[in-house]
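W.,

You were right to be curious about this one. When I first looked at the sequence I had no strong expectations either way, so I just let the prediction run and decided to look at it fresh. Below is the sequence, 268 residues in total, followed by the output.
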Amino acid sequence: MPQKPARCISDRLARSVIVPVLLAAGLAAARADTPSLLDSIPKAGILRVGLTEDYRPFSIADSSGKVEGIDVDMANNLAQSLGVKLEIVKTSWPTLKSDLEAGKFDIAMGGITITLDRQRVGLFSSPVFSSGKTPITHCGDEAKYATLAEIDQPGVRVIVNPGGTNERFDKAHLQKATIVPWPDNATIFDALAQGKADLMITDSVETRLQAKLHQGVLCPVHPDAPFDHSQLGYWMPRDMIFAAYVDQWLNLLDLSGEHQAILARWLQ
């Protein structure tokens, strides 16, 4: 079953009060010579969305270069709400922060974990997904890597995509195990399946999906009880007016059931 968006009725009621307050604050702080993205995006006729294109089920590029996934559908919906065309801007986990700061896109989507470090750089939308870090390993080895203590042993190889929260988690919790960097996040699970490592620690939603794609080869380890808990959101420049619009768009998408339908399309 697809996981529900990380919001409930009380969250929506709270936002009905908070969003207007944020909007008023943003309007008060806005300067005439620095228009909000909410004005400049419709004027340009294009919404630029940053996606890494390597993280199923949120965004993935196939061999022809076509990008699809949950957040491609969500990005298209957001663009339609603004009455503009969608332009996907390829980014990467190591360059995501610098690309946001450089203004290469209007909003970053695609399974971005909400962290305080990132919050210092830009604004996050309300959470759109709840997850947590958990292992995925070769089927039959699940019991060997059920705890961090069992994983953090000499000779255990943990594969990781550099630049994101997976790498940060591994470096914070593993001192004895060998961390194996793999630069291509789109092929990292194939590398794991081929025996280039013993396991990977990533978001539980990804372990479930990759287990389906590598059926009988890779299996998730306790995806319903991850090592930690995190939330994913959409990352934007420090533009409170645009951020308030994105939150209201998400609120209405939840109320209409469209968000749940998009999640079900990719997770079932």
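Here's what jumped out at me. Residues 116 and 122 are 10 Å apart (CA to CA). And, maybe more interesting for your project: The chain has a mean pLDDT of 90.

Coffee later to discuss?

I.
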